[in-house]
Model the fold of this input.
Amino acid sequence: MKTIQRLGAVALLAGGIGLASATTVHVRLTGAQEVPPVKTAATGEAVISVMPDHKVSGEVVTHGVKAFMAHIHEAAAGANGPVIIVLRHSAAHTWRVPPGAKLTGAQYRAFLAGDLYLNVHSKRHPAGEIRGQIKP
Done:
């Protein structure tokens, strides 16, 4: 009986792993997506993952921009919104979501609706040089 209970527990745990998978989004950042649009040759790519428990991970890699800040903001495409996660500079042209970053319930719903975005700031464009919507 104990063996069957253990096997049942293992099966439940293994089945639960699939339920707790992350939503991973690939994002392209450009100046045209900034509000207002920015004329720049700079670009970026990001991979952002959000777990069902609202934990966030990922990174942005930039090209052609000397950035000094990068953030995740809450707002729909075409609008600007508040910073919700400050990314950390981790290597040349690379910014990472800090360990332990987590969305609130309202921010998670905004994520599911496509109402979060990444943007990268430079001295040339301190309000943001490149941006990309995070659309699951």
Summary: Residues 1-19 have pLDDT under 50 and may be disordered. The chain has two helices and nine strands. Strands lie at 23-30, 43-50, 56-63, 67-74, 83-86, 88-91, 94-96, 116-122, 130-134. The CA atoms of residues 73 and 84 lie 5 Å apart.
